[in-house]
Amino acid sequence: MKAEIIAVGSELLLGQINNTNARYISSGLAEIGVDVHFQTVVGDNAARLEDAIRIAEDRADLLIFTGGLGPTKDDLTKETIARHAGKQLVYDDAALRSITAWFERAGRTMTDNNRKQALVLDGSTVLENRHGMAPGMLASSDGRHYLLMPGPPKEMEPMFTEQAKPLIARLAGEGGRILSRVLRFYGIGEAELEHRLSDLLDRQTNPTLAPLASDGEVTIRMTAKTESREEAVALLDRSESEIRKIAGEYIYGYDDETLPSKAASMLIGHNLTIAAAESLTAGLFMSELAEQPGISAAMAGGVVTYTAEAKTAQLGIPADFLEEHGVVSEETAAAMASSVLAKFSTDFGVGLTGAAGPDPHGGQPGGTVWIAIARRGGTMETKKLLLSGMRNTNRIRAVKSALHTLIRMINEMTAPEI
Amino acid sequence: MKAEIIAVGSELLLGQINNTNARYISSGLAEIGVDVHFQTVVGDNAARLEDAIRIAEDRADLLIFTGGLGPTKDDLTKETIARHAGKQLVYDDAALRSITAWFERAGRTMTDNNRKQALVLDGSTVLENRHGMAPGMLASSDGRHYLLMPGPPKEMEPMFTEQAKPLIARLAGEGGRILSRVLRFYGIGEAELEHRLSDLLDRQTNPTLAPLASDGEVTIRMTAKTESREEAVALLDRSESEIRKIAGEYIYGYDDETLPSKAASMLIGHNLTIAAAESLTAGLFMSELAEQPGISAAMAGGVVTYTAEAKTAQLGIPADFLEEHGVVSEETAAAMASSVLAKFSTDFGVGLTGAAGPDPHGGQPGGTVWIAIARRGGTMETKKLLLSGMRNTNRIRAVKSALHTLIRMINEMTAPEI
C-alpha cells in the first residue's frame, strides 16, 4: 500500500507553521510498513486542492488529508472530496451531540458553522475527536481510501495513533514486519562513511541502509521487512556486524541514544564524577549532561570562565600563564581541566576554551577549540578542533567532541583486562 | 510569480525529520510577495523526482529544491534536473577550491564523492555555501527558474536569505507588497491572549493576525498586503498600537528577537555585566546568553553548583543555611545570586535553583523553581515557578523566566526619569 499525505492550509504556504503532521503520520506509517512516496501541501483553495487529489490518486492507494475540517468558510477539505468522489455529506449524530455539548459546557452560542463540523462523507468510518470538535473519517471509493483528519496536531496525533493507524494496518493487511535500528556514528563524515561502506550500500536490499548526517554526527537507519520479528532482528544483526567490521570504531550508540545520554549513563553506571570549566561553551557542556535524569550522582558542577580575568580569579590560572600561552591554547585548556578537577574533587575535569567565531579570539582564528580532559591521578587528554561553522554550531560541536572523548576514555578505563 | 517548494529526501518521507525548510522559504517568499501554491516532498528516487518536477512546471514559474546535493549516491537532485532540462553539469572552480580547502583544514581525505559536490548546472548563478560544502545554484530554462539549495537548514537558511532571496525579488519584479511583523509575548497564555484580543481577531482582514504558541511563549504574526511598503508599515503600526493597548505589558520583542538575544543586547547596550549561579539549569542560562555575539563584554562567567556540597564549597553558602532553608528555596536562590555577584564583581547576579523533575528534590515537588536576581548595591528580586512540564522543558522555562525578569529589571533601571 502506498500513501500520500496532503496537508491543507494556507498558513503552511505562508510559512507560519511547520508541517509537523506530515512527519508524525509518515513515521507512524513506516512502523506498519506503509510506504509514503509523496507529501503535498496545498492552500485553502478548492480548485488547487482538487488538482492535488487528482495527482495523488494517480500515485497512491491511500490519501491522507490533514486540515480544512474547521468551521470557517476557508475549511473545504470534505466538501471538495465529496464533490470530487461524487459522495454526499451527512450529519454524524455522535459528532453533532458532542459539538452541542461542548457549546453548552462553554456557555457559548452554537452557530451553523459549528454544526457544519459534524458533516461527514456518507458511508465513512467516523473517527472521534477527543481533543477538539471536528471528527475525522475514513472513506473508500473505487479501491482508493481517503482519510481525513483535523489540522491541529493536538487533535490529529491521538486520532491518528489511536484510531486511524490500526484501521490502516488492517487495510494494508498482514504484509510482514518492518523493524528499524539506527546506528550512531561520531568522528567520521557522511561522505567518508559512505565511501567505506559503498559495497554494502550498493547491494543493500533487506535491510535497507539509509545514512543521514546532522550536527556533526552521522546515523545509519537499517530497516528490515520480513514475516516475523525474529527474522528481522537476525537480518539487522547481520548487517550491523558487517558495518562494525568496517567502521565499528566510530559507532557510539543506537536509536535514540545521544552523546550526552551515553556519557551520562556511563558516568552514573561506573560511579564516576565530573566537573567542567567552560569558556566558549559557557555552560553548554554541563547543561547537556544535566538533561539526563539521575545526573546529580555524577555531576558536581563547574565554572564558566568566559573572560581571562575569570580564569585567573575563579580557577587560579596565573595571568602571566594566560599571557604566555594564550587563552585559546592546549596549556590553558589543560590548566582549566586540572583546576576544576581539584576544585570539585571529581574523577574527571573538563576544560573547554576556544574562539567560537566569527571573530578571532586569544590570537586564534574563529573556530579554533582546545578540549582537555583530566583524570584523577594525573592523566590528561587534549584535543584541538578547527571548526568552520557558525558561532553556535561551533559551540555545539565542541561539546559533542568533548563528550565523545569522555565516552572513549571511560570505555578504555573500564574495559575488562585481557 | 508563483513558486513551488520541492524537498528531496527519503528521511522526510520516513518521518525522521520535519520539513522546516519549506516553512523557512515560504515565509521568506511571503515577505517579497511571491506566492507559494504547493509544497512537495519526494524521496531520493530519480523517477519520482522527475514526476514531481513535471507536475510543478505545470503550476509554478519558480521551482525551489532543497536537499539531494550531498556527496552520496542517494543525492541526485542536480543530476535529475540536468537530465530533465537537457543541461550539462560542470565543475564550479570556487566551490571545488572551498571543498578542497575544507578537507585540508580538517586533515581528512577528500574522495571523488566530495568532488561531485562542486558540480553545478551549466550557466547557473552559483550560490556560495558559507556553512557547508555543497553550493546552491539558480538556473533558468524556457522561462522557468530552478533554485537548488542544500538540505541541512544550517546551510540552506543563510544561503536563501543572504543570496537567493534578493535574486528572486529581482526576478519577481515589483508586484504588490507583503510585509510581516511578529510581536513576541511572554507571561500570558495563548488562550488568554486570544480571548483578550477576540474583537481584533474577529475583524482582522488587512493585516491578518495569526497567533501561535510555542515553548511558553506566544507570538502574533501580522501580515499586511498593500501596493507600497509605506502603506504596509502604516497598517502594521496601527494594528500593533491596538494590540499594545490591550496586552502591551506582555510584549517583549519583535520578529526574530528571543529572550536571550533581547537580554544580551540590553546588557551590552547599557554596559552592564552579569554572572550566574545555576543549579537545576546547570549552565543553560549562561549558555543561552553566550549564543549572542559580543556577549563577552557583558558576561564574566559563573558557577554551576549542582550539589549542596558545591553550593557550600564554591559559593560559600553554609551547610546549616542550606539545611535550614532547603536547597530549593527563596533564601538559597538569593544567597546564590548575591554570592556569584560578589565573586565576579558584576552588576547582576542570578541564582537558579529548583527541582527539575520528575522526582522531588530538596523537599520540594518536581517543577518547583526559585529564581533570584541581585543587583549591585543590594536590590534583590525573587520569583517562584511551579512548572508541570517534563524535566528539560522545566529547565528551559526556568531560564526563560529568569531572562524575562532580567529584561524587566534592566528596563526599569534604564527608563528615563519623568
Automatic annotation (TrEMBL), chains A, B:
<dbReference type="InterPro" id="IPR001453">
    <property type="entry name" value="MoaB/Mog_dom"/>
</dbReference>
<dbReference type="InterPro" id="IPR036425">
    <property type="entry name" value="MoaB/Mog-like_dom_sf"/>
</dbReference>
<protein>
    <recommendedName>
        <fullName>Putative competence-damage inducible protein</fullName>
    </recommendedName>
</protein>
<dbReference type="InterPro" id="IPR008135">
    <property type="entry name" value="Competence-induced_CinA"/>
</dbReference>
<comment type="similarity">
    <text>Belongs to the CinA family.</text>
</comment>
<dbReference type="InterPro" id="IPR050101">
    <property type="entry name" value="CinA"/>
</dbReference>
<feature type="domain" description="MoaB/Mog">
    <location>
        <begin position="4"/>
        <end position="170"/>
    </location>
</feature>
<dbReference type="Pfam" id="PF02464">
    <property type="entry name" value="CinA"/>
</dbReference>
<dbReference type="InterPro" id="IPR008136">
    <property type="entry name" value="CinA_C"/>
</dbReference>
<dbReference type="Pfam" id="PF00994">
    <property type="entry name" value="MoCF_biosynth"/>
</dbReference>
<dbReference type="InterPro" id="IPR041424">
    <property type="entry name" value="CinA_KH"/>
</dbReference>
<dbReference type="Pfam" id="PF18146">
    <property type="entry name" value="CinA_KH"/>
</dbReference>
<dbReference type="InterPro" id="IPR036653">
    <property type="entry name" value="CinA-like_C"/>
</dbReference>
